[in-house]
Write a structure and sequence with these properties.
Elements lengths: L8 E4 L5 H12 L3 E6 L2 H12 L6 E5 L5 H15 L3 E4 L14 H29 L2 E6 L12 H21 L4 E8 L5 H14 L3 H10 L9 H11 L11 E4 L8
Parallel strand pairs: 1-2, 1-4, 2-3, 4-5, 5-6, 6-7
Length: 261
Amino acid sequence: MDFGLEKKSVIVSAASSGLGFSIAKSFAMEGATVTLSGRNEEKVSDAVQRISEEASGIVEGCVCDVTSAEQSVAMVKSVSEKHGLDVMIANTPGADTAPFVEMTDDMWRKAAETKIFAQIRLAREAFSQMQSSGGGRIMFMAGTHGKQPHAHAITAGFSNAALQNISKALSEEGAPHGILCNVINPGPFATHRMVYLAEEKAREDNISLEEATAILTEETVLKRYGDPEELAALVVFLASNKATYITGASFDIDGGQVKTI
């Protein structure tokens, strides 16, 4: 199936590893011109090389700390001037977790800055560029705890819920300009992030890492971690010419973890 993504300009932030890397790779495999960002120059270069060895699309790297307003805006402007901008995948690192009484004001601020404000800045600059060029796609990477709160992920839930609201509102403002906005809610996937969360749960509950991992996957009806490529396939579809009537939507890709309707 031709998704019409060849030579489309795509930015995937925080994409030197994890879900971001898989998303960037999948776009490049479709022939898109992909700019992936990360904080570490060596990791960014390695990610670009690994994807370029397999994909037909052009892959470029950008060292960018998404918590820096200056760096985020500069990245989006630079890519837009060089390639134009068709797709913005606003992906950012997850929030730290801890028992509620141990969560400091700084932890709450960091969660807001790292996830909410970082994605707002990326989306805002992308929105501005897309208004001028006649449209595009913006996707926020949130998470299932924004819909289904969890005691072990309160900061994640609060920031993810905010992104749900922002994406829905922005879809209305973007529609007259041909800008489609959606939000992706990953559940447990086989990434370094999930290893970290399992370690945190093991510490908080005083259980083994194996037991914590089993509990995290037990919350899904499929009883397993997702493959990052499964999530990337959804993101690519939503950015494609097959998804022109989808905006303001929220997609749980979580193996059935969320129990709400």
